[in-house]
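Hello,

Our lab assistant flagged a job as stuck in the queue for most of the afternoon. It eventually completed. Since we weren't sure the result was trustworthy after the delay, we are filing this so someone can double-check. Below is the sequence as submitted and the structure that was eventually returned. Let us know if re-running is recommended.
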Amino acid sequence: MGINLEEAMLNDKNRIMQELSSEDFGKATESNNRPAVVMVKASWCSNCKAMMPVFEQSAKEMKDAADFYYLTVDDKEELARSLKIMGVPTTLFYRHGTLISKKLGKQNLASLKKTVEPLVELNSEEAKDKQYRSLLSRLFGRK
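-- returned structure --
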């Protein structure tokens, strides 16, 4: 059962990160006026556990610039497949509902900030122009 994202945000304004369900994922990333950063993780993943404090620190430091979420894919295989998650941790960066960047592996604070900061100023047209495309799609021209 998913959480009511709007209600959760209103009830807990001090919360810096929220866990997403499959049902909440689209709403959190598509209907947002701010960048959305999603850490995709698994409960058994040691790199995910090591990255979580860094992700929390990023969320605290950039709370006025972006919304931070995490998605535990242990029981969300279909969503992970649809997002083309090849490994965990993977960090997804969205702006105006468009996936702008996808980073595989453990990220540090500087890397997260460097990726988020330019997203803040993007309008929806610029975000569409910067939409993430995998290496294969760039090489072979497929979306």
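-- support follow-up --
The delay was a queue issue, not a problem with the job. The result is valid. The domain at 5-140 is CATH 3.40.30.10 (Glutaredoxin). DSSP finds seven helices and five strands in the chain.
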